């Protein structure tokens, strides 16, 4: 007879269990047995819903990446308010929260997972980082349209610098994540030229 508790929403409860394991034990500790033990269900439950463990991980990553959409929307809502540097500092701190930061090395370490993510969606092989980059790029483009960033600013390069630098800051979480001042210093440095120059007059 199967052991463990009945899962009303098995997929989401398995995802939540995997998230807890990932945060506690890291990518190396994330196994199918660890997930089902954490969810207090029979191991067969996972395989009834997913063809194999990599399929489960693919859906987990896509689910967590989709959750960043709300945060991306919140960032775009700040266009034209406050300062560009402060808005991006807050956004990077949220977008590089504990779960996204924990998922990135999982993708990096598993070749099959990256391959399946690429099949699932364009840019999926770097899911999470791609989501964050898209959010930052869209925000910068909106601010450029409003004239708060120089008209000739290279949005793609700025976004890559902010996301790459932000990831490096947040990936080193021992013992604590970076302070707001540290993140703001990165953002201010990257944007120093384009936000200090006034848009060209025609």
Question: Could you give the topology of this structure?
Answer:
Blueprint: H1 10-25, H2 32-39, H3 43-49, H4 53-77, H5 84-95, H6 98-109, H7 111-120, H8 129-145, H9 155-171, H10 180-196
Helix pairs in contact: 1-2, 4-5, 4-7, 4-8, 5-8, 5-10, 8-9, 9-10
Characterize the structure shown.
There is one protein chain. With 202 residues, this protein is an all-alpha fold. It has 10 helices and no strands. It is elongated and about 55 Å long. The model is unreliable at 1-7 and 198-202 (pLDDT under 50).
The shape, in one word, is elongated
- Annotation field: number of helices: 10
Strand content: under 5%
Distance between the termini: 76 Å
Task: Give helix and strand order, one letter per element, not per position.
Answer: HHHHHHHHHH
Instruction: State the major sheet.
Output: none
What is the structural class? mainly alpha
Radius of gyration: 19 Å
Overall average residue pLDDT: 87
Unreliable residue stretches: 1-7, 198-202
Please, what is the oligomeric state?
A: single chain
Instruction: Let me know the number of strands.
Output: 0
Proportion of helical residues: 55-70%
Briefly summarize what is shown.
This protein is mainly α.
Fill in the keyword field for this structure.
elongated, 202 residues, mainly alpha, disordered N terminus, disordered C terminus, 70% helix
């Amino acid at each position: 007879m199967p052991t463990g508790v009945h899962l009303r929403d098995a997929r989401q409860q398995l995802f939540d269990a995997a998230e807890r394991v990932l945060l506690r034990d890291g990518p190396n500790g994330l196994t199918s047995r660890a997930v089902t033990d954490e969810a207090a269900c029979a191991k067969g439950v996972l395989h009834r819903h997913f063809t194999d463990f990599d399929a489960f991980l693919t859906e987990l990553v896509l689910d967590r990446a989709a959750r960043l959409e709300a945060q991306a929307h919140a960032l775009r809502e700040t266009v034209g308010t406050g300062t560009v540097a402060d808005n991006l500092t807050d956004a990077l701190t949220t977008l590089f929260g504990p779960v996204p930061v924990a998922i990135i090395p999982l993708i990096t370490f598993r070749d099959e997972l990256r391959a399946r993510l690429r099949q699932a969606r364009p840019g999926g092989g770097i899911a999470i980082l791609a989501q964050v980059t898209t959010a930052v790029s869209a925000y910068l483009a909106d601010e450029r349209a409003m004239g708060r960033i120089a008209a000739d600013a290279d949005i793609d390069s700025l976004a890559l610098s902010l996301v790459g630098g932000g990831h490096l800051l947040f990936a080193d979480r021992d013992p604590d994540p970076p302070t707001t001042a540290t993140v703001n210093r990165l953002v201010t440095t990257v944007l120093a030229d384009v936000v200090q120059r006034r848009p060209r007059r025609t």
